[in-house]
TrEMBL record:
PROSITE patterns: TUDOR
Organism: Desmophyllum pertusum
One function term, GO molecular function aspect: hydrolase activity
Descriptive protein name: Tdrd12p
Assigned EC number: 3.6.4.13
Matching InterPro entries: SNase_OB-fold_sf, Tudor, Tudor_domain_containing
Superkingdom field: Eukaryota
Enzyme class, first EC level, given as a word: hydrolase
Length: 136
């Protein structure tokens, strides 16, 4: 039986490759999850930075642009003039970013079973030429 899923396309790589995520309605499970994740880390006084950071490791990071916490996968660890930093892929947003290693935390057990939201999608046999009709 075929099922459908309403998604929002938020990153287009090319005509046959894009990233999407389920549309999160107000009060949805995902919005609830993100609120709880951020509350957990804002209120936690015992949250310690991960001591050993490995490529491919799942973690939670504090993004520098908005100071919110997101789930991520470590892509690489770099030694920079401002200290160790990690290149991470935000698994729910399909974004890569660079964060100080001191902002990387382990994923608490309560948040480990939530499926990642960003889905890489591929079209089978996409057209190589496209036309666009604009109605005025």
């Amino acid at each position: 039986m075929a099922t459908t899923l309403d998604v929002e396309i938020f990153k287009v790589m090319n005509a046959g490759n894009f990233w999407a995520h389920p549309i999160a309605s107000p009060g949805s499970e995902f919005q609830d999850f993100m609120g709880k994740l951020n509350d957990h880390f804002r209120q936690s006084t015992t949250s310690q930075a991960v001591t050993q950071i490995l490529k491919g490791q799942m973690c939670v990071i504090r993004r520098t642009s908005d100071s919110c916490w997101y789930r991520a996968r470590v892509q690489n660890v770099l030694q920079t003039l401002s200290g160790p930093q990690a290149s991470v892929f935000l698994v729910d947003l399909a974004e890569s970013t660079l964060v100080p290693c001191c902002w990387i935390r382990e994923v608490p057990a309560v948040f480990q079973n939530i499926p990642v939201q960003a889905m890489e999608c591929f079209l089978i046999g996409p057209q190589t030429t496209w036309t666009c009709n604009i109605l005025l």
